[in-house]
Specification:
By secondary structure, this protein is of the alpha/beta class. The strands form four sheets. The protein has a five-stranded parallel sheet with strand order 2-3-1-4-7, sandwiched between helices. The protein has a five-stranded antiparallel sheet with strand order 11-10-9-8-12, with helices on one face. Strands 5-6 form a two-stranded antiparallel ribbon. A hairpin with a 4-residue loop joins strand 10 and strand 11. The chain is extended, with a radius of gyration of 35 Å. The two termini are 48 Å apart.
Amino acid sequence: MKLRMPEMPPGTLLAALGSYNLLPAIIFLPTRRRCDESASEAALSRRTAPDERRASRREFMLSFVEQHPEIRKHRHWDAIISGGIAAHHAGHMPAWKLVIEKMMSAGLLDAIFATATVAAGVDFPARTVVVTCADRRSATGWQSLTASELQQMTGRAGRRGKDRVGFVIAAPGPHQNPQRIAELLSAPPDDLESQFRATYTSLLNLLDAFGSFAQVRAIAEKSFAHRNLLPQIRQLETMRDENEKRIRATLELASVPMPLATVRGLERLAAARSRLLESAPQTRREARLRWLHKVVQPGRVVATGRSGKRLVLVTARGRDGVTGVREDGRTASFSLERVGRVFAPIFSTRPDKIEEAFDEIHQRGAQLALPEPRLRDTRGEEESSIRLINDLIDSLAGSQGEILWSLQADAAAIEQAERQIDRLRADVWEPFERCARVLDHFGYLDFKLEEVTDRGRWLANLRVDRPLLVGEALQRGLFGALNPIRAAALIAAIAADEDRDYGELELDDSIVSLLAQFEEISFDVSTVEWKQGVEAAPEINFSAAAAAAKWAGEADWTELVHETRAEEGDLVRLLSRTGEALLQVAGLRETHVAAATTAHAAAAIVLREPVR
């Protein structure tokens, strides 16, 4: 049960920790805003308190700013010097986070307010870790902390060489849950999750290196992502081999010189006969429903009701239901069993053609009605197939029928084990096969020859987000006529997270047109991906394109932050990813000279201070 307790004011919390000699501390809060607000509030409450380290902090900051001038105007500059308190989260630029980490490690800070999401990335210990919330905020909403996340957070408690023990405190708060915290602390760590995925570039690189789909499949099966797969396959293979040994031993003991394939062939025939017997209709109602499932389809007219005079033009078919249009124009929905007669012609379902369909049925209905099959006719096909299988079984068994039938349980176990093995291996290979078919469609590999094409080789080396989209943009000449600003805008739109907002800067008409052209390429690619069962890439981010265009247009950093209203850390990450992706395109000098030249110029502009 969660305790609905008010959150302790930051200054009060630090005063309490200080009174018990529990500083320095890392206080984990659920959101970036709460971290910044708490750090400012706590620093303000300590501004007039005596602190002999204040001069050292100032000196440290002034020394650091010589190499990183971008932090000099940071809004928390005075708070960190006067109060010895800082906030640390992904919204701050890397240089600011680095100076905080160094100052904490040097013993110049008393507390850092941080988000749970950066717990795995911080590189500084503290005497005490304070947990204020059993949940964390993510891009998809509030989520409960996992055991590994909490253990990452609490693992920062205790400084090597300074503390014999570290302290973890569950502080009061509106979303605190001490019982849940206690459970997570004693829980085993979460299972490791492999990041190995079937991607276009991983498939191209593996196929180019190892030469065949079989080799790619074998490597994928051995990956950590499928660590539970191999033991299952080995167990099934052992069971299969044991059954095969039993069959061979029985045949040898009976002095029957018969290959294992014959025993397995008999099992397959017997299984096929059983399936036919089970599927054959046993009653006239079953036979009629099977027939209706086959013949009732959009465009056909059917008669419903006891009299069979109500006509409906079928417009849609569900599993067991029908939707259509009556003669009076009203929509009708009914079960398949309510269908009386079915008429052979398939008409247009366009509203202006419906009347013509009904007129023809009224004029020639008796001639156009499909004949209903009789039960013996519907069973005739199955019965002839069963007779054929019986003949094959008799010819296969011959004079050894008794011993062959005694081996069928083992043969069935072999067949079942092999089906399970194939199913497990298909789970690994299917995502790669889907990617391969998409790449084959666009000419990056030859599916039949199992070869990477020349086009696929340069795509394999393109380390960018959504490589196939970038590859198609390059192939279709979209990069050819771009200047550095538009190139930066396009790559930023691709590299940015779909749901991240970088403000509402106005986009130049030429960039809007460029992004529209790229979306056409994206539509073409996603259509093929959809057909092959590959998840399509997320939508491009127009606000990221505007921010990158502004920066590539030589805007001042302060101006960019002000106009986008984005967190500095988010902007640095966006522009760093954009610059790195541009450098990847710039590496294609041998295959795409014009695009590489433009990308190189754009990268030089984007990766200037403070982005680097």
